[in-house]
Amino acid sequence: MIAGIVCEFNPLHLGHQHLLQQVRKGGADTIVCAMSGNFVQRGEPALIRKHLRAAAAVDCGADLVLEVPTPWAMATAEIFARGGVSLLQMAGCDHIAFGSERGDTALLQQVAESFSASEYDWLLRRFLDGGITFAAARQQAVGQMLGDVAASVLSQPNDTLAVEYLRAARELGAAMTPMAVQRVGAMHDGEAEGGIASGSYVRRLVWEGKLQRGCQFLPTVMADALCWEVQQGTAADVGYAQRAILAHLRKCGPDDLAPYDGGGEGLYRRLHDACRQGRDLEEILFLAKTKRYTAARLRRMVMASWLGLVRETETPPYARVLAANEKGRQLLRQMQDRGVPVLTKAADAAVLGGAAARLMEQEGRYTDLYGLCREKLSPCGEEYRTSPVMK
Question: What's the whole-model pTM score?
Answer without folding.
Answer: 0.94
